[in-house]
Amino acid sequence: MPPHLSHLGLLKVAGIDAKKLLQGQLTCNLDELVTGASQLGAHCNPQGRVLSLFRIIAPAEGCYYLEMPAELLPIALLALKKYAMFYKVELSDASAELAQVSDAATLSVNAWKTSNINAGIPTIYAATTGKLLPHEINLPELNAVSFNKGCFTGQEIIARMHYRGQLKKRMYRARATSKNTPQPGADIYAATGPAGTVVDSCQETGDSYQLLIIASQENQQLFLDPDKIEPLEFVTSPN
């Protein structure tokens, strides 16, 4: 695999029951997936929290590729294998085929992150798997959750949050200057203490970073550090 693709992995789901398995597990609706195109989707646990987030590609009938960070691939494989035993389907690590099927084939790690962050597209890593709700990372707004396809794992909790409007935090773009690269899953802080979470970051120049963060919808000053010396500037407003 080319070095610039080593941060990405590809999970292959193939077989006559591939669509049936995935349709009952993923948040997205595979009936809306165009052959050869990609769609954002997630696999959640029964508590409605995101285990893996990926771009799903269907190059042919009965075959699906799920593109995600390489570090997340073993977690995603294990989670889906729990259900795959009931279907005529094979799950495998197809990362060696990534250059042939991925739109990210020409991007460096930071360029890939920058592209996603500029588009407001989150990434789930090993540090954040099973911790974030789809609504907290704006997946409904990104058309990565279908509320009319029928049941999928975690659907009841996700639908309840959607229709009852119980969400207190959501994802925003932000910018900050820091001596250390902001890490996924790290806390962000307000005057009263921890007030949100870093979803992802990419380097602009030097110590300048763009970020996706989960924060309250209140317009308050936030910081990357508990000592409050590295302020965050909102790029998308919480109002």
Written account of the structure:
Helix content is 18%, strand content 31%. The protein has helices spanning 18-23, 73-84, 98-101, 109-118, 155-164; strands at residues 8-14, 38-44, 50-60, 63-69, 90-93, 169-177, 187-190, 193-203, 208-216, 222-223, 231-234. It has a six-stranded antiparallel sheet with strand order 7-8-9-6-11-10. A five-stranded antiparallel sheet has the order 2-3-4-1-5, covered by helices on one side. The mean pLDDT is 91.
Radius of gyration using CA atoms only = 18 Å
Structural class: alpha+beta
Question: What is the β-strand count?
Answer: 11
Shape: globular
Most strands sheet: 6 strands, antiparallel
Low-confidence stretches: none
Q: Strand percentage, roughly?
A: 25-35%
Helix segment tally: 5
Give, in spatial order, the strands making up the sheet with the most strands: 7-8-9-6-11-10
Nearest-integer average pLDDT: 91
Amino- and carboxy-terminal Cα gap: 44 Å
Spell out the helices and strands N to C. Answer: EHEEEHEHHHEEEEEE
Which range best describes the helical content: under 10%, 10-25%, 25-40%, 40-55%, 55-70% or over 70%? 10-25%
Write the layout of secondary structure elements.
Layout: E1 8-14, H1 18-23, E2 38-44, E3 50-60, E4 63-69, H2 73-84, E5 90-93, H3 98-101, H4 109-118, H5 155-164, E6 169-177, E7 187-190, E8 193-203, E9 208-216, E10 222-223, E11 231-234
Antiparallel strand pairs: 1-4, 1-5, 2-3, 3-4, 6-9, 6-11, 7-8, 8-9, 10-11
